[in-house]
Amino acid sequence: MEQSIRTQPPGPRPRPPAGGGSREAAVPGPAAPRDAVTVRPSKPRPASSGPAPLIRLRQRLTRTGAGGESVKRPGPPTRLTAIGTGLLAVCGTLAFGLLDQLLFGGLGVLFGLGFLLVCFQSAVRVRLADLPAAPISGPIAFALAIALLGPAPLPGVIGQVLALCAGLAQRAGWLFAGTGLAAMIVAARFVAQRRIRRSR
Fold first, then answer.
1. Please, are residues 118 and 95 in contact by the beta-carbon 8 Å criterion?
2. Whole-angstrom Cα distance, residue 51 to residue 35?
3. 149 to each of 135, 141, 178, 180, how far by Cα in Å?
4. What is the rounded CA–CA span in Å between residue 115 and residue 99?
5. Which of 106, 141, 159, 200 could disulfide-pair with 154, CB 3.0 to 4.6 Å?
């Protein structure tokens, strides 16, 4: 007894837990594995038929340049309706007539060359549905420019009519040249369009 008392450490003795028996310390076991997440395999993308990826790549390259700047793709010129062609012919012919009067004091060579240029642009830019508008609007614009800008020998309406007739007679070469040029271009475009339709 004395030896057991001596070997015991001083202080209160530990009381056994309620329930009678000694319980073993709970040792944490290995963590239970989590539920495995089912991963569905991704479906392979169908291979694109034809050169669609190449076409998209070319479109992207044409839209943006090397530095990322947008590049305007070249396209067909803007087509004019019959009204637009008439306005182009009248405004262009009057502009060249006024410029010729300011520079040289009359309707001369500059006016004729400008009329040829206006007829060429009208015939090239008119749309296919309004091809006859180009050779028709040219002579009307030419006569209107002479009536407004040409000198009148007599006052009044009779003077204007005489000035118009004299101006058309003096500049008949420019009038026929511009009208013929527009008619030839329109006829060539019409024949080319019919051949394209037949080949399709």
1. no
2. 46
3. 22, 12, 19, 23
4. 12
5. 159
* Amino acid residing at 76: P
Query: 130 and 78 in contact (C-beta within 8 Å)?
Result: no
Type of residue found at 34:
R
Under 8 Å between Cβ of 93 and 119? no
Amino acid at 170: Q
Look at residue 12 and tell me if it is in a domain: no
Q: Output the six-digit token pair for 106.
A: 């009359």
Q: Quick one: CA dihedral 173, 179, 182, 186, positive or negative?
A: negative
Would you list the DSSP string of 62-95?
Answer: HHB-TTS-B-PPP-PPPPB-HHHHHHHHHHHHHH
The residue that leads in pLDDT, 64 or 96, is: 96
Half-sphere exposure of 177 (CA within 13 A, CB side): 13
pTM of the predicted model as reported, rounded to 2 decimal places: 0.59
Domain of 109, in residue numbers: 82-199
Query: Is 128 within a domain?
Result: yes
What would the pLDDT profile of 27-55 be if each residue is shown by its tens digit? 455 554 554 455 565 555 555 444 555 55
Find, among 98, 131, 127, 135, the residue nearest to 114 by Cα: 98
- For residue 80, list its beta bridge partners: 126
User: Model confidence over 69-85: pLDDT tens digits?
Assistant: 444 545 555 688 999 99
- How far, in Å, are 13, 17, 26, 28 from residue 23 at the CA level? 18, 8, 9, 15
The domain total for the chain is: 1
